Amino acid sequence: MSFLLETATRYGAVTPSDSTVLNFKALYVGGTGTVVVRQAGSDVAAVTFAAVPAGTILPIAGNRVMAATGATNIVWLDW
User: Fold this and answer.
1) Given strand 26-31, what is the order of strands in its sheet?
2) What is the pLDDT of residues 15-26, one digit of tens each?
3) 27 near 37, Cβ under 8 Å?
């Protein structure tokens, strides 16, 4: 099912960290900037999303929002 048709049942504010595990299915980005995430269930290198505009919902599953993230007011979403 598309994430746009589902309602988040768990969510919270993100403090970027290389060690905090979040387990999310999407991220809301409130302030423009770079978002660096690590994929859920993977130990591969983190992926960088550059110049993410304010108000964007990134429909990506992950387990960490890394400390190198420059975007602000990020909220993790899960369902």
Assistant:
1) 10-13, 72-78, 26-31, 56-58
2) 999 999 999 999
3) yes
Q: How far apart are CA 14 and CA 66, in angstroms?
A: 10
For 34-79, the pLDDT digits (tens) are: 999 998 776 788 999 999 999 999 999 999 999 999 999 999 999 9
Q: Give the containing element (helix H, strand E) for 62.
A: strand 62-65
Joined together, the tokens standing for residue 8 give 């988040």
Q: Which two tokens mark 11?
A: 């969510």
User: How far apart (Å, rounded) are the C-alpha atoms in residues 62 and 29?
Assistant: 14
Which tokens sit at 76?
A: 């993790």
DSSP summary character for residue 24: B
